[in-house]
């Protein structure tokens, strides 16, 4: 497996885990929904944390990315519900 493929697989795994964690907080279900919400949440969470200068201080990069993506996914779901 080349590095680009591995990166995409890891990104998808982070998205699914983050989407699942967000669904535990705000509700929702389904693997595809977890993936989409988690991936969008990864971008949103990363942007918000950088813009606000927030550092989670988690030593494990994978766990830090999952938490950041989950928080971003929660924000996305709550904003979507507020708009709808």
Automatic annotation (TrEMBL):
<dbReference type="InterPro" id="IPR007341">
    <property type="entry name" value="Transgly_assoc"/>
</dbReference>
<protein>
    <submittedName>
        <fullName>Transglycosylase associated protein</fullName>
    </submittedName>
</protein>
<feature type="transmembrane region" description="Helical">
    <location>
        <begin position="7"/>
        <end position="25"/>
    </location>
</feature>
<feature type="transmembrane region" description="Helical">
    <location>
        <begin position="31"/>
        <end position="49"/>
    </location>
</feature>
<feature type="transmembrane region" description="Helical">
    <location>
        <begin position="61"/>
        <end position="83"/>
    </location>
</feature>
<dbReference type="GO" id="GO:0005886">
    <property type="term" value="C:plasma membrane"/>
</dbReference>
<keyword id="KW-1133">Transmembrane helix</keyword>
<keyword id="KW-0472">Membrane</keyword>
<keyword id="KW-0812">Transmembrane</keyword>
<comment type="similarity">
    <text>Belongs to the UPF0410 family.</text>
</comment>
<keyword id="KW-1003">Cell membrane</keyword>
<dbReference type="Pfam" id="PF04226">
    <property type="entry name" value="Transgly_assoc"/>
</dbReference>
